[in-house]
Each structure stands twice: as structure tokens, then as C-alpha cells.
UniProtKB/TrEMBL annotation:
Record's bilayer topology term: Single-pass membrane protein
Superkingdom of this protein's organism: Bacteria
Pathway assigned to this chain's UniProt record: Cell wall biogenesis; peptidoglycan biosynthesis
Compartment list: Cell membrane; Membrane
Catalysed reactions, semicolon-separated: Preferential cleavage: (Ac)2-L-Lys-D-Ala-|-D-Ala. Also transpeptidation of peptidyl-alanyl moieties that are N-acyl substituents of D-alanine
Identification of the protein by name: serine-type D-Ala-D-Ala carboxypeptidase
Amino acid sequence: MLEKKKKSHFPFRLNLLFFSVFLLFSILILRLGFVQIVYGENFKRDLERKEDITVSNPVPRGKMLDRDYRVIVDNVPKSAITFTNEGFSQKEMLETAEKLAQLIDKTTDKVTERDKKDFWIINNQKRADAKITKNERDLYDAKKITDKDIYKYKLDRITENELKELTDNDLEALAIYREFTSGYKFTSQMVKNEDVTEKEFAVVSENLQSLPGVETTTDWDRSYAFENTLRSVLGKVTKSGDGLPADQLDYFLARGYSRNDRVGKSQLELQYEDILQGYKSKVKNITDKTGNVIETHSVYAGKKGKDIVLTVDMDLQMAVDKIIEEELWAAKQSPGTSLTDRAYVVLMDPWTGEVLTMSGKKIVKDKETGKVEMIDDALGTFTTTYNVGSAVKGATILTGYKTGAISPGTSFDDTGIKIKDTPLKKSYAYLGRLNEIDALKKSSNVYMFHTAINIGKGHYEYDKPLNFTNKFAFETIRNSFASFGLGTRTGIDLPSEQSGFKGQSKLPGHLLDLVIGQYDTYSAMQLAQYVSTIANGGNRMQPHVVKQIREPATEIDELGQVLQEINPTVLNTIDAKKEWMNRVQFGFKKVMQEPGGTAYNFFQGAAYSPAGKTGTAEAFYDGPLRSNYGKEPPPVMNLSLVSYAPSSNPEVAMAVLVPWAYEGKVDNRASLKIGKRVLDTYFQMKNQ
């Protein structure tokens, strides 16, 4: 009976098992069917999902040309090897770096000790892990220390002997790997673009299939047809390893730049970055869901940067540079010129503001060799300011007219001014009784002092205190001077322009210093704008060094189409009667063309009929050797000259500035020597 009962239960249990399995499979099939019907399309789209990622590649920068369309700054092509991280793992990039190290020479000077330690850990994972104690692992498991702490322990415990295990090949691979990881995903990173040999370029090109992410391409570098001429104004471009300037990172990123892009970092390259940079080529990489690139399409071929045409005449620029060099070296041979080390010249079209020449030279000592040499300092024409002396007296006379302090024909006796408890303030000699025209011709300080006293509504008596009832005399004169361009930014289309230093004292004696150019400081560019304003009859023109913006040149056309012509800009017009301006112009003409004029001995008989004003200012030295003199720097004389020609219908305006020209009473007349040679050269070249 028992056996029979057991037999009757076994088939039932087996059938129940089979039924359960059948039921579960039925549910699974129904579920799979439901998933396929309801979510099938979604899953299919996920499996086939692609992602479009657009990669931008740099293009050559635009050229710079002079006013006669001669190339000043161009691009020189050079072979380059790049890497684009297309989502590779650390291991894959290391393998590629090691392969590439066998094919090229890569300098390791940028590899740091930290780089070496990181590299050692990557290649010695087990040995690095063994540096962590059991106690530290327990703390890590208990979440009392972090991954960062563990990694730091490993780094700190790598010995010098372990680092010495890295071979020269390892270090080259590390240097390459360092370049690989310094960029961003899908952004080309420069691996080598200096001194890439033909053999390296060829062998890497042949092995690209085994070097994922690596490409051989053509890079570019800036070339300078006139070498160092005007280099400080042309500016610089960041190198491929520099990336975007840290202080302008957000600015450039907001405009679509990549962090490793090269950009203009100073002067013209920076000022016209948006124009010179061009439009990057764009390539669309299509990736699968794992990030692997499966297709690449060219979206935009790119367009090189636009060209800019400068107002500068490079032949004239080089000629002026040479004149300054020769006269500056010659001046250094004179007595009392131990501190003389620089000179500046600006030539400008007084009607348009076009800067024809901006030349500066500076004598420096090479820190490595100790050799004394002359370098370009054209930048100093608008970034450095000095006391300029009597060159500003034209502005003083016109300010006197405007304020009613003097009128045409007003005369003063040239006897020195003595204010109580101050030294006698006088001209370089007693010049007799003068009107304003002869005061300009002979450069009377005393005439300007009386004009300032009248502007300040003061009453002068010999050796008595001098007080002004006009409390705004300084502001009145400075505002008037600024309307000519003195003591204010000229508006030149270059960064870093300096407006100059304004003396803080409001003592009456300092007002007298102000009107003869011995209190506030001015740049050579400000002097050029000021004399241009007088030359053209009262319009302060904005100086500019860019004349045109053009489409990039093509193989067919040497010059691209003009996109923009930089038109003359009048910043303000002097509030002066024509008669007043004529009298100042006449005084300037007498300075250079009539016996007794302060520049007559140099410019007499000049066929181009010059007009202008000389300047000599006693100042305190504040140059590179300032620390040698403690708290009392020696007094020095700054020399200046402003001029235009021809006097009747000016076509060129000039400013010459020679700071710290001499010490003591030995006058080397460097400003006049330079100015005469420069104007002679300008008109000779024009006639040729």
C-alpha cells in the first residue's frame, strides 16, 4: 500500500514542476514581447545612438602690411605632429606615446618631478600599492581618508632611486604623454612643432594607423620681413604650449576659443586679435555611444585671418630708426651723458592722424653677456611720459587767448619772476620786452609766467607772496592742454597708452612750472597730436596705425578686397579764433626760420619751410639706474622738439623727445640734430 501511494504522488509533483516552468517561461515570453512592442524602438535607437561633436582647428593669422602694401608680418609654415584625444583611455594614450617616442625626438625639459612620479605610478601599480600600510587601508575602508590622501602617500614615498629607473625613452614617452593629456577631448594638441625633421614627419605619417589620435599637419609661425624694426609695436602671439592668457581666459572662451589656442598677447596682435585670428576650420566627429569616432565630416574649411594695412612707411621707419641710433650713440660720447639711454620720434599726418613713423630706441645691457646694445622701443612713444619743457608753449599762448589772460599783441618784460621764499624764475637769458609771437620765437619763460598769473587772477610783486583768486587755475590750464592732446590719452589704436603724471601740488610756483612744460609729463605721441592740432588749424585728430582691413590675399590676387577703410576722426576742435591760431603758427615759423629763433641755427634755409617749437626741461632722473642714487636722483635735462612742414600747408607733423639727454650745463642738442635729419630724410624720400 505504501509503495503504491508513493508512485501516485511522484507524477503529480513532476507535473507541477513542469507546469511552473511552463508558466514562468510564458510570463517571460509575454514580458519580452511587451518590452519589444512597447520599448523596442527606444532600445533600438539607444543601440544605434550617435553623437555629433564639432572640432575646430586653427588657421593662419592675417598678415600685416605697410602703407605701400609690403608685407611686414607673415606666417611661415612648419611641419607639426598633433594629437587629438578621441576618448582614449589612459592605457591607450600611454601605449601611443611610447610608440611615438620611438619615432621622434622629444625634449624633456618641461617634465617635472611630479610628472615623473605620476608616470612611475602608472607603470608600477603593484609597487605603488605596496607603499600603503595596512593601517592606512583600514582608514580608507572606514572612509576616514580619501583617494586623494592615498595617492599623496604614494607620491611622497617614491624614492630617488625608483625615479632613476625611468630611462631616456621613458622620459621621452612621458614628455609626449604629458602633451597628450594637457588638452581637451576632441581638441587638437600640439605634440611637436619645433625642429620636426623631414625623416620624423615621414616616418610618423607612414605609421599613423598604429598611432590612434596622432596626425601630421602643417603649423605656422610669425615671420618678420623687417626683422626687429617696429617689433615692440607689432606685438607678440602666444606659443602653442602657452594656451590662452590666464588673465583673459574667460574673455577668449566666451568667444569660442579653445584653451590651447594661440592668440595675440600684446600691441597690434592683441588689439586686432578678432581680425587677425580668422575663422577656424570645423570638422564634425560622429561617435558611437562609447565615444569612439565612427565618421568624420568636414563642416567648414576655415578661412585665414584678415590682413591689416598699417599707416607706417617701413622705409621711412627704418631711416628714422637709423638716425636715432646714430645720434643716440653720438650723444653718449659727449660729457655729462652717463644717464642718456633713449630717444623717440613720431611722424604723423596732421590732417588724418595717420602715424607715418613711431620710432624709439633704447640702450640696454644684456643681462647674460653684459654687452651694451641698442634695442627697439617704439612702444615708448606712447607708454612712457616725461617733462618736455617749452615745446608746450603754443598751448600756453592759446590758453591765454581763450581765458582772456592775454590778447594778440600783449607784451611783457622778460625780467625774472621772484616769489617770496623761492628761487628766481627766469628765462635762459634776458630777452627784453616781447609780444606773444616773439615769446614763442625766443622761448621766453617769463612771458608764460605772466600769462599763468593772469589766468590765475593773481597779483605779482617782486619778492612778495603770490596768490591766485582763481582756485581752478590748474584745472583750466590742464583742460585746455588736454584739448590739444597733452596730459590725456590720444586715442591711438593700441593698448597700454599712458596719459602721463600730473603734479599734485597747487602752489602758485608750480602753476608757473606747468605752463612751461616742467610740471606734468607727456609722451612723444601726445606731442605729435598737439603739434598736429596747431598745424591743421585746431582739429585734434585721433592717431591711428591701421589704415585698412582687407580680405586675405589669394594665389591670384596679392591684395584682398578692402573691407574697412579707417577714416580720420576729429576728437575735438580747439575753441580758438583763426587769428589766434595764425599768430601761434607764425611764432612757430619764426622759431625755425628767423634769426634769433631757438631752432634757427639748425633749420635755417630748409627748403621745406618748417615751423615748430623747441623744449628743454629740468627734471629728476627716474630711469633704470635710479636705485644707484638713493633718495636724491641727479637733475637731468630732457630735450624735445615739435614741428610741422611746410609751414603754409603742412603735410607732416613731428615730435622728438630725448629724456635725460644730459646732466649739468652741457647741452648736446640731440633733439635738434635728430629732428633736422628726420625732416630732411622725409622730404628727400618723398621727392624720390
